[in-house]
Amino acid sequence: MYSYEDRIRAVRLYVELGKRGAATVRQLGYPTIRALNRWHKQYQRGHDLPAGYVRLRPKYSAEEKQAAVDHYLNHGQCLAWTSKSLAYPGRGTLARWVDEQRPEARKRIVGKVGALPQPRETKEAAVIELCMRQESARVIAQRVGVSRPTLYNWKNELLGREVPTTMKRHNDPPLASERTALEGQVESLQRDIQQLQLEYDLLKKANELLKKDLGIDLHLLTNREKTLLVDALRQTYPLSQLFGALGLARSSYFYHRARLQVAEKYAGLRDVITEIFKGNHSCYGYRRMRAALVRRNISLSEKVLRRLMKQEGLAVSTARRRRYGSYLGEISPAPENLINRDFRAAAPNEKWLTDITEFQISAGKVYLSPIIDCFDGLVISWSIGMRPDAEFVNTMLDAAIETMAKRDSRPVIHSDRGAHYRWPGWLTRISDAGLVRSMSRKGCTPDNAACEGFFGRLKTEFFYSRNWKTTSIEQFIKEVDAYIRWYNEKRIKISLGSLSPLEYREKLGLAA
């Protein structure tokens, strides 16, 4: 990589500098310190230095060398500045190029070993010229014969680093122009303060009215929300300033303001809708909500009602959970499926449905077994307990039979194929009361869909939407019992003419 002459030059300079490898590499720009040590050892042993291979193409072209030398001569003759500006070559290499092309250019700026320092008088004169600033620092340094960094080092040596490099007095501007500039700065600062205050007030109102985070981007708000902010601050700031800060068009503001004024006529109605929704286990959708309003002589379109419920956050829970399954296998012959998915009944006590469902809360498990009349969905009887055993379903059946003691009817009682409906106690009660048994097909839940639908409504409206972590078993059983009574007496069913099951029977004269 390096010629024989390059290696000899490096070794000789290395010896002249007292075997200081770093200084030699810094001055020549080549090679590495390890290579220099290896060349010196070979030279001491009296061996000829290997010439190595000859670079087929020079590392730097003649144009690059000339450009580096020209930059050095035209920009203050500073090796470090030229190397930093052009990103090539090393300072040692650049010094060699300058020596080859212009040897006289470096004789007065590159110090030699043993050179005499500049006298103090020369330093003081140069520093005075530097501080007076009649000429540039580069011109002063060239006239003295030193580099700019050396000139500044003299200043630091004589005056200290804290003294500024210029002591030239500036002419004071006229008083009038200075006053005008200061007034302009004051006005600019006042505008900035007012703009910041406006942004703070907007963010504060967005937090109060819209429940937004204080770091919200105001331009991401809807035009309706921006209109609310403008109305809240229009007494404090001009409309044009508010429009500009929010990025709101003037026409959009007046459009949404008119819409908001129209919406205010439903302010009282919102409270009524919320009261009905929360007073009915938060389970009324817009259809039953509209029916409840009609019962209060309030007429409202479906679209308006749905919009108001959405704005008030009145949404019915739709979560689902797994259901309890009591099937234990075929333990006795099963009767036919007499219902066959026909859950319509022309009169009460024609078709009864029953099943068992499970509630799992923190305090434990609770089971519910109802009997439902297909005529109007009335829950004839129900049993709530902690163990789904034979007594659990038998007591429910006894209570249902008591309700029809004075009626001449033989209801069909339909269930799944669970073991509860095949035990001797259940079969004996069925036979004594003259009831007709019917069972779903094996593993076919839709055969008892009406009873499963009741469980789904019960859990969606009552169970899933509430937190039962702190509720005891006794309290939960009371809550379930209260819900079923509300379901029979007050809960609106659209299919019954917006009446509850008991209200429907009273209207038909069928109440017990």
Please provide a brief summary of the model.
Helix content is 51%, strand content 7%. The chain has helices at 4-16, 21-28, 33-44, 62-74, 79-86, 91-101, 120-132, 137-144, 148-159, 175-209, 223-233, 239-246, 250-263, 267-279, 286-295, 302-311, 390-403, 424-433, 449-463, 473-489, 501-508; strands at 351-354, 357-361, 364-373, 379-385, 412-415, 436-439.
What gross morphology would you assign? elongated
Extract low-pLDDT stretches.
47-56, 107-115
Q: For the record, what CATH class of one domain applies?
A: Alpha Beta
Largest sheet: 6 strands, mixed
CA(first)-CA(last) distance: 115 Å
CATH homologous superfamily assignment of one domain: Ribonuclease H-like superfamily/Ribonuclease H
In total, the number of strands is 6
Approximate strand percentage: 5-15%
Assign the CATH topology of one domain.
Answer: Nucleotidyltransferase, domain 5
SSE-based structural type: alpha/beta
| CATH architectural arrangement of one domain | 2-Layer Sandwich
Radius of gyration, taken over Cα atoms and rounded to an integer in Å: 50 Å
Mean pLDDT: 82
* String of helices and strands: HHHHHHHHHHHHHHHHEEEEHEHEHHH
Helix fraction, binned, reads 40-55%
The number of helices is 21
InterPro entries: Homeodomain-like_sf, HTH-like_dom, Integrase_cat-core, RNaseH-like_sf, RNaseH_sf, Transpos_IS3, Transposase_IS3/IS150/IS904
Organism: Granulicella tundricola (strain ATCC BAA-1859 / DSM 23138 / MP5ACTX9)
Pfam families: HTH_21, HTH_23, rve, rve_2
Keywords: Coiled coil, Plasmid
